[in-house]
Specification:
heterodimer, A: 274 residues, mainly alpha, MetI-like fold, 2 domains, B: 298 residues, 15 helices, 70% helix
Chain lengths: 274, 298
């Protein structure tokens, strides 16, 4: 037994359990607190769960949560659709194309990887205002998709490059058009990469905060991360209600984590690890 | 049509939709931000030419200079805090033992939260009056323990470094896990036969073979730290005073709260220049271009 314990990477294991506590404790506190009554919240033992109530969840849903959920879903779905279709077409053109136009396009996308959204936010505000899109969901959809495209194209290009050219040539000899090869061959073959790209784009859209902060103002265009920020001022010191809202907005991603942990994590580190 | 048939490859037109969207909302703004930095623009009326006014202000604005200093400080501190932990734990969870994969499943939980959710949770947790920390220290009679983690100008920046680490370490851990799993076990077996202990194995095998991973992770941290915004904006709003007002916050506060988007554009130009040159510098120095082969090979 002693031998086995010594065999464990003891330093690593110790650090491992310390970090476990650092991660798990705030999450545990958040969840149990979201089930508390506001009354007595301050004098209760903060660590031991009290008699649970779903009252705070009712309150969050009553102040428009469902409509913010719908807005977030619309934005996320549209961004994913735009990014998947456009990036796959671009990646196909880059991998199968020849000449300086395609290689130049690819280089432009690579350059785009280094552009920070924060630094582009003022001209984006200007462009969106000029296009009369301010305070619409399009104002969130277009820039979010635009900033997801470079990495998505890069991932899909790397993936499609591994597809043997003979497959395309064989289809071509059979008289297939470019479109047919794109949808019938490239799309099914790159399904794993498309899944990664889709998750990456969805998370960016679902969690984005700066664009809603700058480009929307009314409750009819409010999305979840911004709603959280607003709940905070709305609920004031009703901490259980604020945390119930946090739990609710995270639930969909958490469900995804339970269903497909590997795919979700690969979407998160898209392009930087396998 | 005939030219199209002759060409072997696919039509570059297929890249047009992606290029249009990307060009319009990412490349055009890069030109726009430079142009706007030479104007007075309040966000409502049309921009008016300002000559070099914003740039001369940039050279003299002590708040902005302080923000640059803080940005560099937070860059260094968050790298120092995140890299050792992410590296050690990433290697730790690359082991296939069952308890390690259970721990890993928990470690990744912060990745599921948006920055806004993390910010709001921690803001409440650390609240000096109603938060968990103050409640706990009160109960445990630990009056000496600092309770004003966000309100004290001395502590706020370090608290933010901790929150940034809490948010991003799982991501870097994942990168290190993937990197460590690509090291062939046979190398370790050989080292074991030669009598190398665990620490030696880590220093002489794991660390050198993870060089590319360390570079990738560090690069993402450094470029990312130029643009931290959501977390700090929600938790402290740049305060108390100017204690956590890093450059992106200085930009936002000037532009959107002070309606001085011309000056904020000048700050944005500096942000872009910093992000691009840091990326370029790291690519040049470390040969980041080779990272793909490092990922595909061993």
């Amino acid at each position: 037994m002693v031998r086995r314990l010594l065999h464990l990477n003891s330093l690593g294991a110790l650090a491992g359990f310390v970090w476990f506590a650092i991660v798990a404790f705030p999450v545990y506190w958040m969840v149990i607190t979201s089930f508390r009554h506001q009354a007595g919240f301050l004098i209760q033992d903060p660590v031991v769960p009290s008699k649970p109530t779903v009252g705070q969840y009712h309150r969050v849903i009553k102040v428009g949560f469902l409509s913010y959920l719908r807005n977030s879903s619309v934005v996320t779905f549209s961004v994913v659709l735009l990014v998947l279709v456009f990036s796959l077409m671009a990646a196909y053109a880059i991998v199968r194309g020849e000449g300086w136009i395609t290689s130049g396009t690819f280089r432009l996308f690579l350059l785009g990887l280094a552009i920070p959204l924060q630094a582009a936010i003022i001209p984006i505000f200007f462009i969106v205002s000029k296009m009369q899109l301010y305070d619409t969901l399009w104002a969130l959809i277009f820039p979010t998709a635009a900033f997801s495209i470079p990495l998505s194209v890069l991932i899909l290009v790397n993936f499609l490059r591994d597809v043997p050219a003979e497959l395309f040539e064989a289809m071509k000899i059979d008289g297939a058009s470019e479109w047919r090869m794109l949808w019938r061959l490239a799309t099914p073959l790159s399904r794993p990469a498309l899944l990664t790209v889709g998750i990456f784009a969805a998370l960016g859209a679902w969690n984005g905060f700066l664009l809603p902060l700058v480009l929307t103002q009314s409750t009819s265009t409010r999305v979840l991360p911004f709603a959280l920020y607003d709940f905070q001022t709305q609920f004031g010191i009703n901490i259980p209600a604020v945390l119930a809202a946090v739990v609710l907005t995270t639930l969909p991603v958490f469900a995804l984590y339970l269903i497909g942990r590997r795919q979700l994590l690969s979407g998160m580190t898209a392009g930087f690890s396998r | 049509m005939r030219a199209d048939r002759k060409r072997k490859g696919a039509s570059p037109l297929l890249a047009l939709p992606a290029l249009t969207l990307f060009g319009f909302f990412a490349l055009l703004p890069m030109i726009g931000v430079v142009v706007l930095s030479f104007t007075y623009y309040d966000g409502i009326s049309a921009p008016r030419s300002a000559g070099l006014a914003n740039w001369s202000r940039f050279l003299h604005d002590t708040t902005t200079h302080h923000a640059i200093w803080l940005t560099l400080k937070i860059m260094a501190l968050s790298w120092l805090a995140q890299t050792p932990i992410a590296l050690l734990l990433g290697v730790f969870i690359s082991g296939r033992q069952r308890y390690r994969s259970v721990l890993a499943a928990v470690y990744f939980i912060p990745l599921l939260f948006s920055a806004a959710a993390i910010a709001i949770t921690w803001k409440n947790l650390l609240d000096p009056n109603f938060g968990l920390m103050s409640n706990l220290t009160h109960r445990l009679h630990m009056g000496w323990f600092p309770s004003d983690w966000l309100g004290s100008p001395r502590l706020a920046l370090y608290t933010m470094v901790f929150l940034i680490s809490w948010q991003f370490i799982p991501f870097h851990m994942l990168i290190y896990q993937a990197g460590a799993r690509q090291i062939p076990l046979s190398i370790y077996e050989a080292a074991e036969i030669d009598g190398a202990g665990r620490v030696r194995q880590f220093l002489n095998i794991t660390l050198p073979l993870l060089k590319n991973t360390i570079v990738t992770s560090s690069m993402l941290m450094i470029v990312g730290s130029i643009t931290y915004f959501d977390l700090i904006f929600i938790v402290t709003g740049g305060g108390p005073g100017y204690a956590t007002r890093i450059l992106p916050l200085d930009m936002y506060i000037n532009g959107f709260q002070g309606s001085d988007m011309g000056y904020a554009s000048a700050i944005s130009v500096v942000l872009v220049a910093a992000a691009l040159s840091f990326s370029m510098f790291l690519i040049r120095v470390t040969g980041f271009g080779r990272f793909r082969s490092a990922h595909e090979g061993a």
